[in-house]
Amino acid sequence: MDALVFFILALFSLSSTLFIIEASKIQSGFSVDLIHRDSPMSPFYNPSMSKLDLIRNAAFRSKTRLTRFSHSLSLLSNENFQSTESIIKPNNGDYLMRIYIGTPPVEKLAIFDTGSDLTWVQCSPCINCFAQDTPLYDRTKSSSHTNLTCDTQSCTLLPKKQQFCGKSQECLYSYHYGDKSFSVGELVVDSISFGSNSGVDVNNVDMTFPKSIFGCGYYNIFTADNSGKTSGLVGLGAGPLSLVSQLGHSIGRKFSYCLVPFGSNSTSKLTFGNQSTITGNEVVSTPLIIKSLEPTFYFVNLEGITIGQKTIQTGQIDGNIIIDSGTTLTYLEQPFFDDFVTSVKEAIGLEEAVDIPSPFHYCFEDPNSMFPSIVLHFTGANVPLQPKNVLLLEENNLVCLAIVPSNIAGISILGNLAQIDFQVEYDLDGKKLSFAPSDCTKN
């Protein structure tokens, strides 16, 4: 670790206690809104930007996201890696959610991320913070705040390369990212609420969790977002400090979301507990695979894809694709992608466009042409996709495939565009991921 980080960590000197969320009250479950960063309801919304501009921005965010997973997995697979860089790497995030921290509660707009574990926000007094429009979290003004010491079980849940001990045994974290962003601070406990600052939803369900563990960042550089709109990140990965892991059995260790189409005026829904269970004749399920070396990420196994009348196989059985809410495009590892795009070209029968905009790989110039049916074959689950899940309209009637090659060996990602208008349920206890087609503007 460099001298700067040592200096920062040495500044913290606070007492501590052990807490894990006590939240047995949420039996039926609850829902919160997910706001796409480019929707009219988002503080990032820019009415002067065309839909084409928004699509391109989302596509480039996907490219950044792919790099993030590459960085993460390379660290996790290398036991001798000694860098203090984090196992996560942020980007601007495609979806945002509102949380309320402390007593009295203070609203925060944070990035929703199924590919991260630790939830963290910027805190006062801040040594160095990136700009944000809302006040920093000030634990001295919260009556429900508690500190953590290094010997607590909660502190030991931090990855060893990111866990440090302060002069007064306070639990410190240091998360460095591949794009030179970082957050350094203290692991703390306080109340986190969802839905509203009262923590109660329209059905009178209490959505306040008084002993939530999260990072209180005092030294932060977030090069991915200088807008001042967001103040941190909410992690819903599979690791032990993620929000879903902390809520644990109180929500049956399950959650689901339903993502609305690009540009919709409706919010997407994130649901926890029994309400997240999806039912019906069209529900299909596939094993959810959590790998010991990559405990944050949700893997499933893609056995093959049918394009029209032709099926191509991956030949893999051990969890070969990450399902991710923060990536727009879908990435397929080569050479499987090469077989896939060749089959698409054969089925369409149209000439490939000459000038293909980055980061797309295959485009054609007839938006009225018949596109072949696409079915993803996961282990035990066949998921038919609609054109809106696989195509994006560029300028001059150029239609581009929203499935692109992964230029990083061993990494494929099922992006959020492929998940639009599906209810997607993560059942960690049941070890399964379920899909059901849906009109997400009505759910």
From TrEMBL:
A cellular-component GO term for this protein: extracellular region
Positions annotated as active site in the UniProt record: 113, 324
Signal sequence, renumbered to the chain: 1-23
Database matches in CDD domains: pepsin_A_like_plant
Location relative to the cell: Secreted
One Gene Ontology biological process: proteolysis
Primary location class: secreted
Keywords attached to this entry: Aspartyl protease, Glycoprotein, Hydrolase, Protease, Secreted, Signal
Molecular function via GO: aspartic-type endopeptidase activity
Domain of life, per lineage: Eukaryota
EC number assigned by the record: 3.4.23.12
Keyword Protease: yes
InterPro entries assigned to the protein according to its UniProt record, in alphabetical order: Aspartic_peptidase_A1 (IPR001461), Pepsin-like_plant (IPR034161), PEPTIDASE_A1 (IPR033121), Peptidase_aspartic_dom_sf (IPR021109), Plant_Aspart_Prot_A1 (IPR051708), TAXi_C (IPR032799), TAXi_N (IPR032861)
Domain Peptidase A1: 95-436
Similarity-based family: Belongs to the peptidase A1 family.
Protein name in UniProt: Eukaryotic aspartyl protease family protein
Organism: Medicago truncatula (Barrel medic)
Gene that encodes it: 25479868
